[in-house]
Amino acid sequence: MNDTSREKKKNGVGGFMRKGILKSMVVKEFKQMFRDTRMRIVLFAPPILMLFLFGYAVSTDVTGVRMAILDEDRSQTSRAFIERFTSTEHFVPYTYLRSPREVSPLLDRGEVELFLHVEKGFSSHIRSGKTASVQIVVDGTDSSRAAVVVSYVNAITSDFSTEYFLQRIRSVVISKMIIGVRFRQNIGLEERVMFNPDLSSRNFYLPGILGLLISLIAVTMTSMSVVKEREVGTMDQIVVSPIRSMEFIMGKSIPYTIVSFIDIVIISLLTIFWFKVPFNGSFIFLLLSSLVFIMTSISVGLFISTISRTQQQAILSTFLYFLPSILLSGFIFPIYSMPESMQIVAYINPMTYFISIVRGVFLRGVGFFFLWMELGIMTVMGVLLFLFSSRRFKEGLE
Amino acid sequence: MAATVAVEKLTRMFGSFTAVNSIDFSVSRGEIFGFLGPNGAGKSTTIKMLCGILVPTGGKGQVNGFDILSEQEKIKSTIGYMSQKFSLYDDLTVRENLRFFGSIYGLEGKKLSDRIAHAMDMAEIGNRGDEVVKNLPMGIKQRLALGSAILHDPPVLFLDEPTSGVDPIMRRNFWELIYNFSEAGKTIFITTHYMEEAEHCDRIALIIAGKIIALDTPARLKGDLAYEVYSFSVENFIEMFDYIQSLDFVSETAIFGSDIHVLCEKGFPLKRELGALMKKKNITNYHIEKISPTLEDVFVTHARKHGV
């Protein structure tokens, strides 16, 4: 009887754990974690630092585009047109030119990003109903920024011409009493953006940071602490002791889960109260999902510890995992714009689901009812990863 | 009386490489049993199989009456193990280390505190129990590691090259502890590649390329040597070493410090023959004397015979 049950314990990953031993493992791990100041800082400072970096420094909002202006028309209309640009926060007049030739060096040096050239005859063309021309040159080095700039320019231009025509229509209608005349430009398209009305990139990125940070902390800490034991030699002592591998694995996982969880709470609160990112969903649901995501990350860390002999290797492997998992998660680049093969990778990346849960909870204010599938997929992945990693870990002990 | 450790035809293969090749031995209670061999001879592999962390690919064995194939967990809780690698947590204090290692062996409460006190006594920690292990001198760490390995009072102690990297005085202190254990009826299984350490053992197994090639008490191993051993010292001994090695009546040569050990058939008048040759070479400043063989002579002879 004893033999068969032991056989089960040996083979089954879930071999039962003894509370006393698990407790001393956890206590020991916490003591080591908080023993030196450096480690204490490492656990809590980088998450907060990164949050502030993303909160303040990283912004894809297009504001303060420096522009060079050449107004050859020098009329009231042309000045009004230029005013349309400079009165927004998106554009700043950098310099006024006298000749189109002067712009080239400015663009080359990156001093200006946009060149606005109002040609002679701008106002007279408009008055006579002909097409008035305006030329713009945009620095396309940052293609997405350039695209946004062009769209702003178009919007301002069409706004301007619409208004101009509206005035004319009104006058036409009044004087000739003609009803039903339509001008192409007088149909105004009004856009309303839901969920992130300011289209602020901070609101978009900050919640995603949660995923980034947990993954970084949980994966690195877990893999490093296991590999360190192997490197120093304490693992040998653990292996010959009657401690079971599940007790060891859980003894490592529990403390790092708790620390990651605290990090999540800190970061969420800072995001909501310091950066004022709208939080519309359920905090409980967010924490629950975080817990599941921490589990998957710790499993990845455990896996990395089975393929790394030294701490350097562990760090390297962590980065090999970390970068693709961020890039292919929709955190920065939308998944639908990736090539199909990469999309497949994105859909087996647990981070993808966590990012979409976090954004859903923060910005769209949805909860379990809409995100149960993401949570479900992530849970299944977490469990599979955990089983796989702990099995590998067990085999590695031999 | 049943042996504490016994193996029969114990074998471990790694792929097509045979690390341990069908070895047999048994160790009785209270014995200090030495496993002597060069690196890679299969010492650590054997110890791992005995400790229940490596499954043999052939043969069988028992430790403390538990089968090494099926009762690893029981074996683990009844043995002490100390490896060549330093095995305590550097960043924890002495007490925290002992508490942790004691508790994973199921010790708790009064029993645990008593054993911790005992281990600290043995390691002569004094009042440094709350110091971080990192700051302790090497000798104390070594003893502490040993103390930690015997917290649960195991009847068998496996020591895997426990004294590599330790200076001779510490090594001597360490051996005093080992003798104490043996007197207290504990069985010691120790691997080493230090010859003088092997001399301390009750019995030694010489292991080369996965096979036990000799197993006996140190005295008998030396007595059984088929050769006579002479110590030869001369001024430029490195040149002479090659010359002596080439002589056809010399069976083995080995350098010991600045001396050359010359082995020849029993009864051969080596002193006279070599003296004549030296005279021919006009070398007068030399010294030769017959000595009793050391374990190293035994080891070298056996190793050469097995083509190492």
If you had to describe this structure to a student in words, what would you say it looks like?
The complex is a heterodimer of chains A (398) and B (308). Chain A is mostly helical and 398 residues long. Chain A has two domains: 15-58 and 200-397, no CATH class; 65-186, 3-Layer(aba) Sandwich (abc type-2 transporter like fold), CATH 3.40.1710. Chain A is 68% helix and 6% strand. Chain A has 15 helices and four strands. Chain A has a four-stranded mixed β-sheet with strand order 2-1-3-4. Chain B has helices at 43-50, 72-77, 94-104, 109-122, 138-149, 168-183, 195-198, 218-223, 237-246, 270-280, 295-305; strands spanning 5-14, 17-27, 32-36, 58-63, 66-67, 79-82, 156-160, 187-192, 203-208, 211-216, 227-234, 252-256, 259-265, 286-291. Chain B has a six-stranded mixed β-sheet with strand order 6-7-8-3-9-10, with helices on both faces. Chain B has a four-stranded antiparallel β-sheet with strand order 2-1-4-5. In chain B, α3 packs across α4, α3 packs parallel to α5 and α4 (109-122) packs antiparallel against α5 (138-149). In chain B, β1 (5-14) and β2 (17-27) form a beta hairpin. The mean pLDDT of chain B is 88. Chain B is α/β, with parallel strands linked by helices and 308 residues long. Chain B has eleven helices and 14 strands. At the A-B interface, α1, α2 and α9 of A face α2 and α3 of B.
Compact overview of the structure:
Chain A is mostly helical. Chain A has helices at 2-11, 19-35, 37-57, 76-86, 103-108, 122-127, 143-176, 201-232, 234-240, 245-274, 283-307, 311-327, 340-347, 350-364, 368-397, and strands at 65-71, 91-96, 114-118, 134-138. Chain A has a 4-stranded mixed β-sheet with strand order 2-1-3-4.
